[in-house]
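U., I forgot to send this yesterday:
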Amino acid sequence: MLATAVTLPLTIGLALLLGWNLHLALANKTTIEYHEGVTARVRVRGMRRAADAPPLRGPAELCKLERLSQAQAHLLKKTRCLC
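Result:
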């Protein structure tokens, strides 16, 4: 029973490592080259997201936007009452 409890996880681990090494050998890559590619893909995704994101605003700009939206809401209420 103990032999199975030790052998089974070791066998699974070694099989996974063998599969990973075969994958890298067939792709003609080292582990460093693989991880450099992963890092490059993550950076490119991050750049795309940063380009699509709205610009960061400081506290002063946010305060102005808040006051502007409050003024617009006040004007909207006034125009609804006139109708």
